[in-house]
Amino acid sequence: MAVQAYLGALFLTGALLGMAGTGAAAKDTGITSGLPVPRYVSLKSDHVNVRVGPTKDQDVSWIYTRAGLPVEITAEFENWRRVRDSEGAEGWVYHSLLSGRRTAVVTMKQKDDLAALYDRPDPGSAVAARLQAGVVAQVKRCSGGWCRILGKGFDGWIEQQRLWGVYADEVLN
Questions:
Q1: Is the dihedral of CA 26, 30, 33, 34 positive or negative?
Q2: What span, in angstroms and rounded, lies between the C-alpha atoms of 122 and 158?
Q3: Could you tell me if 48 and 85 are in contact, meaning their C-beta atoms sit under 8 angstroms apart?
Q4: Residue 18 and residue 31: Cα distance in Å, rounded?
Q5: pLDDT of 10-61, one tens digit each?
Q6: Does the residue 170 lie in any domain?
Q7: What is the extent of the structural domain holding 127?
Q8: Considering the entire predicted model, what is its pTM?
Q9: Is residue 56 in a domain?
Q10: Residue 68: which CATH number?
Q11: 54 half-sphere exposure, CB direction, 13 A CA radius
Q12: 73: how many CB neighbours lie within 10 A of its CB?
């Protein structure tokens, strides 16, 4: 019981330190990695355990089964990263199960709407495809409110606001 209380206090202290200033406007540096927090990454594996706390002794809340899914790191504690997904679910993942490769999920106001994917970063250019909400794509670059994304059977430009996995007006090269 004393060990659990100690781990709980340690977890809380680490989580609070790691989450300080998690707003996207003012990114802090992760205590362990030295990288910005928050930041987007993707899942490296198609089997990723998400835990209640940052140790292997903590219960598994759920399992991600899709490699490449984008998640946002909101805190760090030693080799663990607290992540949030596009649906707002949060939990702790071991760092080696995460990749710096940028991906994003297509989002729409209405689930049945389709997002236009253009040949160029211009709404007047030809529509290369129409993507459903929930489609996961690799992000190649973003600038000026547009991102070039690609996936199985598509490659083109989409309005940055249609993606979860990149920050508003974030520039990626």
A1: positive
A2: 9
A3: no
A4: 7
A5: 444 344 444 333 334 457 988 889 999 999 999 999 999 999 999 999 999 9
A6: no
A7: 104-164
A8: 0.83
A9: yes
A10: 2.30.30.40
A11: 22
A12: 23
